[in-house]
Amino acid sequence: MKLRQRAARYARTKARVLVRLGVWSLLEAGQTFLAGYALARALDAGFLIGDVRTGLLWLGAAGAAVVVGAVGTGRVYGVVAALVEPVRDRLVSKVVRRGVREADPGALSGLTQQVEIARDTLAGLVLVSRSFLFTAAGALIGLFSLDPLLLAVVVPPLLAAVALFAATLRPLARRQEAFLAADEALAEDLGAVGSGLRDITATGAESRVARSLDRRIGVELRTARSLARWSPARVAALALGGEVPVILLLVAAPWLLRRGVTPGALVGALAYVGQSLYPALQNLVHGLGTSGARLTVVLRRLLPPEPEPHAADAEASPATEASPAAERSPEPKAPALALSGLRFAYGPASEPVLHGLDLALPPGTHLAVVGPSGTGKSTLTALIAGLLAPDAGTTHIHGRPAPEATALRTLIPQEAYVHGGTLAENLTLHRPDPVPEDELLAAADAVGLTPLLTALGGPDAQVDPTALSAGERQLLALTRAYLSTAPLALLDEATCHLDAEAEERAERAFADRPGGTLVVVAHRMSSARRADLVLVLDGARTVCGTHAELLASSPLYRDLMGDWAGAPDARVG
Question: How far is the C-alpha of 528 from the C-alpha of 523, rounded, in Å?
């Protein structure tokens, strides 16, 4: 559903609020009417014929109207709050729901920035639009009351200005959206670079990163220039509607006076244009032209289009109805993970971390990845998870290219993420539909979370992430991944804060998941002893085999294992 239709539907639900807004705004229209009319009467019926008392009375009436108008304006703010705050509450609910239920990475930005932008700009737009409508109505009624000829001079350029400004709104919104997207992309890249400067320098990737940022900056510069090109149109609209009428009134003054327009009426008309119409138009152009485009962009991001019902939807073919599930389902005969010629380096001048790696894992395989520090264990999981793009080679997950297999994999990093809310909300973050409590409790028992779940008060207990230890956060993240529907689980030292017994229990739970495949970056070498296969990363000498095969054939693997292959606490770098 389009934003315009949503706005109309919301306005119908707030009809009483809009009526109150109109009633209080009438006081402002009355103030505008008297600002010019009282001035004209003070001159024509008072000062110009020597009746000072009458002139002062009319000026006093204008002053009293200002006070009454101020009261109305003050009440307007309260009514605007009643109109805008429910919108903010709805947006917050949608953002939180999307962040919790769909694991949307943009939810935090939406909650802390975009919702507040929407609330503030919507309030501003209501105020400036209302002010322009009622101010223009008061001024035009005043001009007609003074002399209808004055409308013939003032209205044409004013209408032309509003039409010119309205014509710029849609292209301005498109360019504003492009600029915001470019700005956000640049900010995201700069944030990633800022936190990884040491790694960038260590791997010699400065030139590569600089070229990437230069492209981002170039895109933002082009969108900013495209946006700026529409500024002259807004300036022209302001001049046409606010300054041209003044010039026309002055030029046409002799003609107007000869046709019966009084000097007071002419001065009143100038007051209407200079003190009422021009400021109202200026607020409208700046408010609606900038904030309106920004609000449109933000609402499009916060409110994804709602599907519109069609008759054909009720008669969708079975193949069409099954297509979303088919996209998420793995191909039954394809390897769970297939790497072909995978190569990656952190910069053009850096030595490759992975050298043409080939690997194929059948579904249900438990693979442990070991190797000295810096051999690319975490890099490998990042490539499989799609966080990095390989320089060469391909990655397929259950027959699907890595970029298309988001729903088929889940990555649990070393630093586990836990958010506020209930335990159940944390654990079901990757499930689109409600999870039965029995399934949730079974998953917690399998991974080893049950003691913590009981101590905290059950699935509905509130979680304070800062009160949890690093190991407790890891257990929560592991259970969340266990509950996900992704058949491929990637554990990148995700158990490093657990003791050996808890680590074994968690790994065995993932290895025993029906249809599940497990890739573990080993923190302890005992993980390799439990795995079906072990991948030993060592540059170009990478080898893969069973624990027994590697003990017999790989000196590096024997060194990593130590003098006693059965050591349960032997750790890998």
Answer: 9
